[in-house]
Amino acid sequence: MRSPVVEDAMPGLGCAYATLVVVEARISTTIETKVSKKIMLDEVNLEQRLVTLEQTVADLKRRVIDAPTSSNWLEKVIGSISDEPAFLEALEYGRLLRHAEIFTDEAGEQL
Q1: pTM of the entire predicted model
Q2: pLDDT digit string (tens) for the chain, length 111 residues
Q3: Cβ contact 110:104 at 8 Å
Q4: CA pair distance 22, 16, nearest whole angstrom
Q5: Strand ranges for the chain from DSSP E
Q6: What is the dihedral of CA 68, 70, 75, 77, to 10 degrees?
């Protein structure tokens, strides 16, 4: 492809212009190829991640289904925190309050 503007401004540059057009086309093709490959790699990576995610979800579902169930929710909770230091401290604090017989009103003032 020849540019009449280039030929009129600088006669004899037709060959240089044609070379420039070819180089530009090659660069454009190279860039498009690299972008296309990156998109394809991203799609492959995305597919692999999706497969892994689906397998993990399926495994978690199996674990939930296979887990023993208790009909009484209280059985699951009883004793679950009984050995925690904070729980034992709260029990002791409650015990001390009950035995102290200090009564307060709703505003927190002693009666």
Answers
A1: 0.32
A2: 444 544 455 555 566 666 777 778 788 888 877 777 777 677 778 888 899 999 999 999 988 888 777 677 777 777 777 778 888 898 898 888 888 867 677 776 766
A3: yes
A4: 10
A5: none
A6: 70
